[in-house]
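Cont'd.
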Amino acid sequence: MNAPIILNTQHFDQPWTLENYLKVGGYQALRKVLTEKMSPDAIIAEVKASGLRGRGGAGFPTGLKWSFMPRNYQGEKYLVCNSDEGEPGTCKDRDILRYNPHMLIEGMAIAAYCMAVKTGYNYVHGEVFECYERMEAACEEARKAGYLGKNILGFDFEFDLHNHMGYGAYVCGEETALLESIEGKKGQPRFKPPFPASFGLYGKPTTINNTETFASIPYIIREGGKKFADIGVPNSGGVKLFSVSGHVNKPGNFEVPMGTPFRKLLEMAGGVRNGHKLKAVIPGGSSMPVLPGEIMMEVNMDYDALQKAGSYLGSGAIIVMDETTCMVKALERLSYFYHEESCGQCTPCREGTGWLYRIVHRIEHGEGRPEDLDLLLDLCNNIAGRTICALGDAAAWPVQGMLKHYRNEFEYHIEHKRCLV
Amino acid sequence: MLSQQITTLIDKELKKYPADQRQSAVMAALRFVQDEKGWIASADMADVAAYLGMPQMAVYEVATFYHMYNLKPMGKHTLTVCTNLSCQLCGSGDTLDHLNKRLGIGLGEVTPDGKYGLREGECMGACVDAPLLTINNKKMCGRLTSEKIDQILAELDKQ
Amino acid sequence: MINIEIDGKQIQTENGSTVIEAAHQAGITIPHFCYHKKLSIAANCRMCLVQVEKAPKPLPACATPVTEGMKVFTRSEQAVKAQKGVMEFLLINHPLDCPICDQGGECMLQDMSVGYGGGHSRYHEEKRMVLAKDIGPLVSAEEMSRCINCTRCVRFGVEIAGQMELGQAFRSEHAEIVSFVSGTVDSELSGNMIDLCPVGALTSKPFRYKARSWELSRRRSVSAHDSLGSGLAVQTKNNQVLRVLPIENEDINECWLSDKDRFAYEGLNTTDRLTKPMIKQDGKWQEVEWQVALEYAANGLRHIANGAGAEQIGALATANSTLEELYLLQKLMRGIGSDNVDFRLRQSDFSGDGKQQGAPWLGMSVADISRADRLLVVGSFLRKDHPLMAARIRRAVRKGAQVNIIHSADDDLLMNVAHKAIVAPDALVETLTQVSKALAAEKQGQSASGDAAAIAKSLASGERVAVLLGNFAQQHPQAAQLQALAQQIAALSNGKFGFLVEAANSVGAHLVHATPGSKGLNAAAMLAKPRKAYVLLNVEPELDSADPQQAVAAMQAADLVVVLSAYKHHATEYADVLLPIAQYTETSGTFVSAEGRVQSFKGAVKPLGEARPAWKVLRVLGNLLKVDGFDQDTSEAVRDEALKGVDVAAGLNNAIGGVEAKALSAAGGLQRVADVPIYSTDAVVRRSAPLQATADAAIPQVRMHGDELKKLGVQSGDVVKVSQGQGSVKLFAVADDKLPKGVARVAAGHTATVALGAMFGTITVERA
């Protein structure tokens, strides 16, 4: 296994300090960009060459996204980091925030330079207050050391970064809801178009990337995009942090090349707990369709392989379930989540998620009806693709995934009013 | 009236945002109120609205949208337990049962002495440490077991 | 222009428009709830999902911009499935209580569920219940379970009314429309939320359970309560007005109505309605036959004219009387030899008479106000005096216009004000003079500092400048000078200037010369030099006059007071004959709006009891007094005669010249600043119970700068004694540091302050 690229300070007692970050080559990429006066085009070319795709879940090519920012726009533009990590199963960004905050700062500074942005915001999930404090301290440290603020590293380049704390709304992980939230409003997603690149924060051009995406930038600039891309597999460049949680012996975050077999990741996480048998895996955060263990054991963790297998890489959060897991109960909890976290704005999600939850809840509690399963699927079709943001899809996919692979368990619940497992 | 301590904190927060975007500090302002008072009364929301120059209704929308705000008095130590899937798989049900037994309260309730409050949380973004709880939205405690919960409560009892 | 295709139909539409706009232009209906042409796009109801070629998913027509060559299918299988899916979601938690819902029969949800709803429900779970809210006397929020969270009401508040009184609190399916801490919705435009609500969540409280919508007959009418000329649909059942709704006209009220126009009808048929002619005999009021009362009045007037002389007779009218009524009133007076007729009851400066070239008017079209990029509003309680005009200006400001204010009070206009000068009444002229000077200097390239200079700078930078004089400016003792200065400022900024105009028919009253000629006395003079006889048309002197003390004294001293009124009001104390006349909903007539729009209307119901249209009463009086030309058979004939040879457009002219500078008498003490509260402006609104239950109808207070209160040793909230002339009243004192020093703001037109004197001038406030 190669040395870590993202969590590269873990061997220090205090991995988060500027001092330790500098020891592992920190801020060299920023210095390189400024010293060599790299052109925005050159930076974007490197990022495109790296094959880096948005690590928040959607997997949009980062270089392409950066190229959308209007070049000649007069006036304020913004750069926003989405650290609102709340997709169940996902907790990779938390490790970047708390263990390697300067890598995020450096990545954002490079992006800001590339897109001529002076102000950035890092939106931190409300529940990880300690990470927010860590980020606040790191920004202060960076400001004092001249990595943020005016005349960064003595160059005519200005960028400052501020942390904004969420306070308990999953939907703010949706980029436009997040912008609304920074503006001091409810986190209700905006309809698109217009996209943030033309109408973003405070109505100004804005680029939003995930924490891990930004954290990948310094390496790409320092070592070259191709080197990053070559670590992974075609169409899924670089390394990726995978959070492995649920029924494993050693849950944790693992930084591995894209395309690493799931089998290997499971091994790194200590295998299924206490000798239990692998039943099912949600491979990319709770919104992604569940896959049976036997399929997963043959799958590599990259965008294309997972899509071929019937799910998505998403945020790279792997929830492992062993044979004791009742899939009805698991879905009930997920459906409750999407119902509670719906922003309430648009009809299919506001009304539909509650309906989904109530049906699954009934089935779990022995009050299911035979027609419920087809109804669930029909409702999913009426929610997915009909909403302002992707939360509608996110609520539908788990239901569809569960019914695709575990319909028999649901039928058993309905018929026998109890659990199969 | 907002305490001087709160307005000082808000003022610091306001520096992060453009001068004509004071509303951006509303989430922080409400958090400061809750940190000081344990919950946010409508009078506090009105004060925040006046301080930031935004409609009271807009403050109310924010306060009711984000789930970590307490809209009623909660305990001196409010424990929020995540029950989402990874935590559920790792025994958040047991966590709740144990807290239930120890504190004698259910979700959304406060102990009669006002010392503890119990809330259910959604995914806290720390799933590899499941099961989890946070204390007053500030400190996160993971990989909970009955023993560990007892330890946490013993610590809090001393405060 | 862009070419698109909707359902196979080729459509040309403007670049930048949305699919729903293009479809509506082409007469293709796309189902929708949250979309409203006057509000921002929310795209939240999802009802307007349509299929767009090459798009993988159905797209919301309201939020999808048209692109060249776009092909849209609103009725394809994909589109209809999406629409039906949304309809099902909208209905699962809806109570489906249509049989007892006031919205029934005019409900978008009901209508659309016919087209897109299912015959049975697949929803077997418990329905969500949303608690009722009490948000005030006008808008009912009793059945919020019906709400579909389209947020039209919220967006209306923020974008049109300018205040966020309702919001959508909580989230997920717990989301609900609420007011902050169950407060009331106090906007003077709140009733529009009822119209906007596509379901029965927000309904009219006064209309609640009064009738089913399909039982109502509908007549077009025109607002009698302000000068905008809003179109009204007066809805009646069993000869009673049960509801008033807006008639849409983009150039006037758009699709809106002020609460005053919407709910005034509740004051039409109150218990003090005069339904039989009455005369006072031996100090006792007796109901009599019409003939008796009319002869009594005619004889009385004839007696005075023949004895003391016709110039001893004065006629006063309010400007919410119709054109026909005002025309016949002045014709009658002139026919019996008196030139004393006037409707400008709250005006105090008449020095412009004879110098003013035509009827004072808006000076531009109402729509021009929306197009102005720089505005100066002088002496206006804008929001309350002209609610929809204010809304127009607010929208202009949202689009980038700058509004500047010069006034003696600083009420929140709920819009960004670029610059303002808030000064005492006696400093208004000086302030305008400064603005004018600064503008002249600005033209020479010189800049000064200060409020006036800032205002001048703003105006100088405009391309379409509007200078508007409000009621306060028109009622001001130096009104003519203010007008001349406004004229100067408008000229210097290449703009237009005009009056916001006080009442529904002020312009019409001028056009038919319901004003004294050169020999006659104006309204103020008629009261200052009491006449032996008065004819009052729609007037409550103590509430409608600039100086109630003087008005009441004059009435009491008169030998004969003939009252044409719809109500049995205070006049019973001094009048001799009461002639019951029809309300504006009970007669045909004409109003000429601020912009000079001549609008005739028909009666919606029959006059109550024995009341008769005032034009008929005046016609008979004319006959009895043997005045020529009182043979009109219809109100239309009166109107045609009144406007014969009148070129309305040419008659409107604000130009004024030769105004002499006149200083205000330098009396010490506090200067009174008097607004006429929004629900005190005329006899009908003063009697509308729901309007009188609003916050805007609260009992007036005396408001003063905190320093002034301190000088008096009074705390905010104390009761104080407020005196003018021989009268005094007790009012609560309230500190208002937005007022200039040296003034006391005490409302006029309200029973609580009728004991006081003139609207302008000194006023004494002391500890009670």
